[in-house]
Amino acid sequence: MKLEDVDPFIGTQPTALPEPHGLAATWWWPKPQIGNTHPGATFPLGMVSACSYSGAYPTGYGEYGLTTEGVPPRMRERPVASGVTHFQQSGTGAIRKYYNYVRVTPMLGSLDALGERWDIADEVASPGSYAFTLDGGVRCEVTVGPKSAVHRYTFPKHRDARLVIDLSLGGLDIPYGATIPLRAHLESTGPGEAEGEIVVEGTPLAMHIETDAAGWRQLLWYDRRLMPGGKRLDFDAIRPTTLRPFGLMWAGPTTEGQTIELRIGFSLRGVEQAARNLRADCPAGTGFDGRRAASELAWAEHLGAVRLGDGPEEPTPAEADGRRTVFGTALYHSLVKPSLAVDESPFWPSKGPFVFDLCTMWDIYRTQLPLLTLLRPDRAVELGNALITICEEEGNFPIGYRMAKGSDRFSRQASALAHTFLADLCQAGFDGIDWEWALVHMLSDLRRTYGEDFLAHGRTEPVTHTLDIAFGYWCTAQVAASVGDGKVRDECLALAGRWPGAFDRETGLLRDSTFYEGTKHNYSYRLLHDMAGRIALAGGDDAFAGLLDGFFGFGAAPVRQPGVRPGDVEMEGGYALGRFEGLNNEPDMDAPWAYTYAGRPDRTAEVVHAVLHQMFGTGPGGLPGNDDSGGLSSWVVWASLGMFPVAGQDLVLLNAPAWPEARVATGGDREIVVQTSGFRRVGRDTAPQYVRSMRWNGAQRDAAWLSGAQLREGGVLEVELADEPGDWARDQRPPSHPHEAVPSSRSLE
């Protein structure tokens, strides 16, 4: 994909897709109907982002307020900003840390107006850069490097223009959303240079600042009052009741069109490292244009890993542009997070990989992390080592992790998710991870929280965690096998065999329990390591496929979606449907591929076709729900290629692709080529296509799956498509891994 295939504004406004029809009209969307993305400047998997700041939820950008379900309420009447802030989340939902530190504001008035929100216009965004014009005529442009941000401001003629940096506040303009520094230090170190550090959420964020505002006055300020001659500010114990705004500014006259550049290096390990980071990202003489070009080059390399071809039947230009934009933006959103920052942990002294804004594993472990593993195995290994270090230093694998002291465990969401990711890395055979040491932490982590109940009783509540932990043991067994520990492998496999305890054999569904953001229906069709046993528990192929048909709404009437501030009765009625969430949320995003294990790949094709072409579109309202750090977008990438990863099992399921041709570079000099015959244009108003036959590297492929090893080696997948389903892959099922469960009284010693 190319930079021009990306529209960073997709997902920044409430969902505005055409009215769904057919199968898609029967799905119910319980979560916020907005992508919660931002269009700001980002670097692939980088530490820093930058965007205009309105204080809106949850990225600091935009016009909409806090909501956990339905259509988001409007918070601002139009696009506004009080400046540019740094460190934004990407597509998340309700969490408790919102970043947006170090606000930079160009001003044409006094400091008394600092913090006001001005209208913004003429926004443009592309991978690596973002720009807008503030009311008053100042043009604001920003680009970022891995650990830096470079701003450029073009001023109108004015006798006393200002460039103001505010270090006093972060977070959002919502109840309990603001972040106030505990301690702060700021110092002017020379003409056009300064350094500082703020401690926010227990984390020290340091910065080294440079500007080319030659001849301008350089001043510290406190409580919106200038401090002439002052060169240093120190705050040892800031409280919300004692906080007064403070920061740094440059001021002077401007001619029409005069530009001022501002460069900021960031670090979590002090101002000296922040200065080194700025030098690494912006070597001497590198200004805004140079840094932007370098960031665009990095994005071009990452996006270029996937190339799409339209085939012999050319779509109309509008159709081609729209489809490419949806896919290209999905790939872009898949590579914004997690934020990797090597040698930057402020919480332990050792060097090495560090990750923050891992928000959250629950959202990304099934789609985004497998995509990262395929496209950038080097960064996947870096993330794997970062997770192991977190467990080593803090005592548990995180479910989520932020630029804040201590990991976020999000214990209601899920358990043992890092195990899934690590199992894939281990089975891939990547170098650079000490797997014996990883195994120690994987075993220890499985005993925490819900793990104790699982060991004692064979089941835990919420019952979804029974499946999580059982699969966590299966994943751990793969690592034990790789290091030659047969005893631990066998014990883990026996514990993994406890997954049936989560199910009600009378209904074929999960037992009644409490469920996070869904019902037992949304969680009952996850892809287990023993899908053959799961299908048998439901009564066999036909019974299992019948349950899935009801879940996906085959033959059901259209449903009504939640509106603004939906009430309890409306939400309870929707949940009572027991229906697929249509990629509005993550709990059932792997369920369409469950059909494959029951010999019904045709049903998978029908559901995936409806999701791809009715639930995703162009424009700011083009996402059906929170993108959640790329978890949703990664689903689009996989499904468009006719694939879906079975996370933790080093397995990829196959389906009809949405493009006639695709080429995917697998992190080295190998390439996966997907070629189709019989392809016709597909879209929201067309019927799906089905796989008639496949060939992998010239050999007939009658199974709807490939191993991760086969994909990583690269090759050519030839897919013959038809308008009617046939017998392909009905008899050969993906691998299942049954194992007899260990009695509940046993546990690993």
Automatic annotation (TrEMBL):
UniProt keyword list: Hydrolase
Presence of the UniProt keyword Hydrolase in the record: yes
Gene Ontology biological process terms from the UniProt entry: carbohydrate metabolic process; glycoprotein catabolic process
Ranges for domain Glycosyl hydrolase family: 273-722
GO CC entries: cytosol
Span of domain Glycosyl hydrolase family 92 N-terminal: 6-195
GO MF annotations in UniProt: carbohydrate binding; peptide-N4-(N-acetyl-beta-glucosaminyl)asparagine amidase activity
Superkingdom: Bacteria
Region (Disordered): 722-749
Basic and acidic residues: bias regions: 727-740
Transmembrane segments annotated in the record for this chain: none
InterPro entries: 6-hairpin_glycosidase_sf (IPR008928), GH-type_carb-bd (IPR014718), GH92_N (IPR041371), Glyco_hydro_92 (IPR012939), PNGase (IPR050883)
Name of this protein: Glycoside hydrolase family 92 protein
Organism the protein comes from: Microbacterium betulae
